[in-house]
Design goal:
Layout (H helix, E strand, L loop, with lengths): L7 H6 L19 H14 L2 H9 L7 H27 L11 H12 L1 H10 L4 H27 L4 H28 L1 H13 L10 H8 L6 H16 L8 H9 L5
């Protein structure tokens, strides 16, 4: 494996934490309805950090010390980001709420809670370290797509501009970890590249596994009607295609097409 390019020790020593008490809620107390819908969606996504950690840590990825060290600080940052979004929503008279599960979503949630950890632990152990490269690619994808939403929201809602730029820098640091980890691990093994390609083909827009596409569509699909934002989606796919073994992949465009076909 190539030498790592992200200083995990420095990252752990200096987490990028946003506390609700640091918000100037007086300047953010009259947000538009669409902005509130988007913030609620983002809160839902960010508040499920422990679900992602569960999915990773029942697999051989749990033995990767760089990844687990990163995730310990990442989870701390995610917790406080979720708390910050919750405070912002509450200040606008709309405490955050989880979207309801679809019928399929209820089945998937029951499976994830009761069976998936055991099945994943057994199944992915057959893949050994190959699964970690796939986790790094999908982690990058999740982060990159959500970062695009934050930046677009900051551009459309001036009162949120500074906060959204701050969150964007947080997400950039997460992507700076995922990208070289993905490159290095996929470059090292053809088997890892095959696993990653399957994972990318199955990747879905964040926050849609249980609730289906409707809540995400209501919250963010309008953003992607902007040609500039569609260009940003295309850039995400171009980046994914630079990862070894993923030439020709376009997961962001595919996921957006399932979310809101009229925007692509």
């Amino acid at each position: 494996m190539s030498a790592p390019t992200f200083d995990v020790r420095a990252y752990m020593r200096n987490p990028y934490v946003m506390y609700p008490a640091d918000l100037d809620l007086g300047t953010m107390g009259s947000l538009s309805g669409p902005a509130m819908e988007t913030l609620n969606y983002l809160w839902t996504v960010e508040s499920h950090a422990l679900d992602r950690m569960r999915d990773l840590l029942v697999t051989p990825t749990h033995a990767e010390s760089r990844v687990t060290a990163f995730l310990s600080t990442w989870a701390h940052e995610q917790h406080w980001l979720g708390a910050t979004l919750q405070a912002l929503l509450s200040a606008n008279g709309r405490p955050p709420r989880e979207p309801g599960d679809t019928q399929l979503g209820r089945i998937l949630r029951a499976w994830d809670d009761r069976c998936r950890p055991t099945v994943a632990a057994i199944g992915t152990n057959l893949l050994n370290a190959d699964i970690t490269g796939a986790h790094m690619v999908t982690g990058w994808l999740d982060t990159a797509v959500v970062a695009t939403v934050y930046r677009r929201l900051g551009g459309m809602e001036p009162a949120l501009g500074d906060l959204m730029r701050t969150v964007g820098r947080l997400k950039d640091r997460h992507m700076a970890f995922y990208a070289p980890e993905a490159h290095n691990r996929l470059a090292d093994a053809a088997s890892a590249r095959r696993v990653a390609r399957v994972a990318v083909s199955r990747w879905r827009f964040p926050g849609t596994r249980y609730a289906g596409p409707a809540p995400a569509r209501a919250a963010v699909a309008g953003f992607f009607a902007d040609p500039g934002v569609r260009g940003a989606v295309a850039e995400l796919d171009r980046t994914v295609a630079t990862f070894p073994g993923l030439t020709g992949a376009h997961p962001a465009r595919k996921a957006l097409g399932q979310l809101a076909p009229e925007t692509i």
